[in-house]
Structure formats: C-alpha cells, structure tokens
C-alpha cells in the first residue's frame, strides 16, 4: 500500500509540474481576439494572437552549449511583435525598406545582392546571415563589432541615412519621428499592449522585440546535426556521412602543421580554430581574415573581425545564400577555401589574424583537389531546410 501511495504521489506531482510548465502557453490561447480588431483587420490569419508560434521553447540539441541571449530572453509575445517590426516597411523613412529587405528568409536571412538597397543608396557591406546568431560566444554585432549587443544593433540600420533613413542627419527625421509614426499606426498600439501591457512605444521596446525575433531564428535540422546526435564528439566518424564528408570534417577540425616558412607539411586545414564545431560561430578573438575592402570615406577596411555562423552558407541544393565575406567578393565555397589556402599579407593590413601567418608568413596550405572537394562536401552538410520555410519567421503581412 505504501508503495502504491508513493507511486500515486509521483504521478500527481508530475501532473502539477506539467500543468505549470504549460501555463504560459494556455494564457496565450485564452486571449480574446476581438480585443485586437486592427491586428485582425491588417494581418488576418497570418498573425493569430490567440495561437502564437513557439519562439521561446524551440528544441535545441544538447550538444549546443553557447548562448549569448543575455537578459533579453525570447518570449512568444515579444518575438511576435518583433516579427511584425522586422517585416514592416513603415520602419523606413519612405516606406520602401524593412529589415527583411536586406535579410531575406529565402537566403538564410541574408541578401542575394552583393550590397543592399537602402532608402538613400546602397550599403557599404554585404548583409550578414542571421541564422543561429545567439548560439555564439561573440556577443557583439555588425562586421566590425561596433554594436555591443544585438539589441543595440537592431535599431542602428533604422537610424542610418543610407539604409532606413531615420538618422536625424542629412535632412532625415530622427528616431522620435519614427515613434510618432508608429503611434499613428493602429495595429502597433494593440501589439505593444499585447507584448508589454502598455500601448507606449519606445526605442528600448522596439530593440527588445526585434532582438527576440532575430534570436529565435535557428537551424539545427542539417545532415550534420543528424550525424552529431549519434556520436559523442565531432572527432568520431558520423554514421550518416559519406567517406568524403567525414574526410572533409576531419580536415576542417584538424590543425595544420607548418614549416618555418608557413608551408603546410601535414595535418588538416584548421578551420575550427576560428569556427569551432558544433556551433560553427566565430571565435571572439579572431581578427581580420585577409579580405580587405573599402568603406566610403574611410579608405581600406581592415576592421572586420565578426562573421556569421558557417551554418547555411548554402541551401540544401548547394546554391549560395548570397556571396560571402563583407565585400561579397567570394562567390563559391571553392573560392572561400582557396582564399585560406594562400594568404597574402597585404600592405596596410595591420589587423590580420596571427593564426593565418604561421612563423610570420602567410599560410600556404597546398591543398589538393581531393581535400578541397571533401571540405566543400562537409560544409554542405551544415545546411538545414526548415529555416527557409518555417512560417513563424515569414512575413506576417498578407501581401
């Protein structure tokens, strides 16, 4: 009898815990949609506030351990507001550009153009992919890491004269004018009240919501992930990989061995020195990778030290999600590998990563065609499919 009572107590306790863990979701379901007539009229069934998408509790593989979310944790309500803001062209001065104009879901939230179109011209740099940005040690954003957090980053394009035009300079209105503009849009009053309990619109609230939406964009359904879930470490052969893909993985992970003049004599390519598996994010201590571009009015651009995760460099069919690097000068995976195969120390590049200059010389990997093809095959395994089609990351606007 005691054993039976003990078992029943465990069942009751489990039921209570399960009920509590689902309490937030049930609260969302109970919201009367008639309280949001302007949201319903504008978005129809594409934005159902009574049945929110799951942003806050998405499945994350247990081998993913990095997280730079900070205190602004993802909520379903906040990310839903962020989704609307991300796709709304009203956030630009002439109603023609949204965040999604330069970060397109069909391209892993990058741009197929080398540089992006803004309200007053084109950007200086290629639009960075936004996939898995929170699963990283690096917490700074933009190619040159000038934003200390994703929250700060989200509104800088809005306040840029070229990009979205609320800069307060060059004849632009300032961010206060944007807030006034959003206050005049009826669905925003409802959405801010829905997310924050108040109709008040502030820059801080916009930053929090946009950052939550961007943080929610994740990709863990690749061939790599299927294989990684079956092994203990990345050093083991993946059961679902071809021999070529496993060879490419080993070359990616294994450091090269150099002679006194920077020539590889054995080992792999050492890509994981800056892009460590399984997140494939950038090492925060990385410096310039040898790609030098120009920025209008500032001369050569050697400040670039941040890059997106290597996940979803290409779609599953192997086509690029836009050209690579901040200059978009690299147009294929083969060219990307080739760049690191022969590093030339360009005059004026005082910020070149020392890992690319063994013994003071630009590294010479002396890659064979077999090695290049193997690494390309491995990089393609890092691409998923859901990120391109999941409706929770798509536009909420009907047209």
Automatic annotation (TrEMBL):
Indicate yes or no for the key word Manganese. Answer: no
UniProt keyword Metal-binding, yes or no: yes
Keywords in alphabetical order: Heme, Iron, Metal-binding, Oxidoreductase, Peroxidase, Signal
Secretion signal, residue range per the UniProt entry: 1-25
Q: Where is the Cytochrome c domain?
A: 77-186, 243-383
A GO term from the CC aspect: cell envelope
Q: Name one Pfam family in it.
A: CCP_MauG
The cross-references to PROSITE patterns, in alphabetical order and at most eight, read: CYTC (PS51007), PROKAR_LIPOPROTEIN (PS51257)
Q: Which residues cross the membrane?
A: none
Task: State the superkingdom.
Answer: Bacteria
Please classify the protein's predominant subcellular localization into one broad category.
Answer: other
Record localization:
Cell envelope
Task: List the Gene Ontology MF annotations in alphabetical order.
Answer: cytochrome-c peroxidase activity; electron transfer activity; heme binding; metal ion binding
Return the PANTHER family for the record: BLL6722 PROTEIN (PTHR30600:SF10), CYTOCHROME C PEROXIDASE-RELATED (PTHR30600)
The identity of this protein, by name, is Cytochrome c peroxidase
Native organism: Flavobacterium terrae
């Amino acid at each position: 009898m005691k054993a039976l009572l003990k078992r029943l107590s465990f069942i009751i306790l489990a039921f209570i815990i399960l009920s509590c863990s689902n309490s937030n979701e049930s609260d969302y379901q109970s919201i009367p949609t008639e309280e949001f007539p302007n949201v319903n009229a504008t978005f129809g069934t594409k934005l159902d506030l009574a049945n929110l998408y799951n942003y806050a509790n998405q499945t994350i593989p247990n081998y993913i351990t990095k997280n730079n979310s900070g205190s602004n944790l993802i909520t379903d309500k906040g990310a839903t507001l962020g989704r609307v803001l991300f796709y709304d062209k009203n956030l630009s001065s002439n109603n023609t550009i949204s965040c999604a104009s330069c970060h397109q879901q069909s391209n892993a939230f990058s741009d197929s153009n080398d540089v992006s179109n803004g309200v007053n011209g084109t950007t200086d740099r290629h639009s960075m992919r936004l996939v898995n940005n929170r699963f990283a040690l690096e917490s700074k954003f933009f190619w040159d890491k000038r934003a200390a957090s994703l929250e700060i980053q989200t509104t800088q394009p809005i306040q840029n004269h070229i990009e979205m035009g609320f800069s307060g300079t060059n004849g632009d209105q300032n961010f206060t004018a944007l807030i006034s503009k959003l206050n005049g849009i009826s669905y925003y009053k409802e959405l801010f009240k829905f997310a924050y309990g108040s109709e008040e619109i502030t820059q801080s609230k916009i930053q929090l919501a946009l950052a939550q939406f961007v943080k929610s964009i994740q990709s863990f359904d690749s061939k790599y992930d299927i294989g990684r879930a079956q092994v203990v470490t990345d050093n083991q052969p993946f059961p679902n990989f071809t021999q070529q893909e496993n060879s490419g993985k080993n070359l990616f992970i294994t450091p090269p061995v150099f002679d006194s003049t920077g020539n590889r004599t054995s080992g792999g390519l050492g890509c994981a020195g800056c892009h460590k598996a399984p997140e494939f994010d950038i090492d925060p201590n990385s410096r310039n990778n040898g790609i030098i571009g120009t920025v209008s009015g500032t001369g050569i651009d050697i400040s670039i030290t941040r890059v997106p995760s290597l996940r979803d460099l290409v779609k599953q069919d192997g086509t690029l999600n836009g050209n690579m690097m901040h200059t978009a000068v690299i147009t294929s995976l083969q060219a990307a590998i080739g760049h690191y195969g022969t590093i030339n120390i360009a005059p004026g590049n005082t910020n070149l990563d020392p890992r690319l200059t063994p013994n003071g010389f630009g590294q010479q990997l002396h890659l064979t065609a077999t090695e290049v093809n193997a690494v390309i095959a491995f990089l393609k395994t890092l691409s998923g499919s859901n990120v391109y089609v999941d409706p929770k990351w798509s536009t909420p606007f009907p047209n």
